[in-house]
Write a sequence for this structure.
């Protein structure tokens, strides 16, 4: 029993170095998973904000254009011109935000799943029982 106990302690001390490398790898994968999840959430937020900006810009552009094309051509109101210009700016910002959000969401989702599967597939441990003694490395395909 003492030999078994001493062997287990020596095995744990010896295996501690590879296990620390394994935990570093797992820690790195966990950081990447959280980073890409955050990227995915940011993409979703950009899509929502971009949609609001696009709809608002479209409405402002249509309203400003309709007011300028009224029957009173001699005296265009400056407020309507500003509404038209703000509408165009909002529309451009909204389209840019939607495009960026879709890109971030797709890449974040894909990479998050990739690193999550790598994290789930790699396991390393110590086998220490009377029948078998040694190190186990499990990688699932």
């Amino acid at each position: 029993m003492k030999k078994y106990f001493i062997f287990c302690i020596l095995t744990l001390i010896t295996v501690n170095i590879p296990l620390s490398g394994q935990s570093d790898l797992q820690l790195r994968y966990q950081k990447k998973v959280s980073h890409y999840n955050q990227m995915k959430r940011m993409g979703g937020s950009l899509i929502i904000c971009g949609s609001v900006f696009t709809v608002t810009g479209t409405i402002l552009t249509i309203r400003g254009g309709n007011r300028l094309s009224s029957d009173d051509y001699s005296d265009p109101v400056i407020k309507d011109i500003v509404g038209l210009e703000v509408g165009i700016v909002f529309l451009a910002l909204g389209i840019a935000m939607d495009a960026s959000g879709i890109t971030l969401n797709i890449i974040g989702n894909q990479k998050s799943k990739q690193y999550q599967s790598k994290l789930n597939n790699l396991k390393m441990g110590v086998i220490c029982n009377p029948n078998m003694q040694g190190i186990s490395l499990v990688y699932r395909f």
Observations:
- The first helix runs from residue 2 to 68.
- Residues 2-139 form one domain.
- The first strand starts at residue 122 and ends at 128.
- The beta strands are 122-128, 133-139.
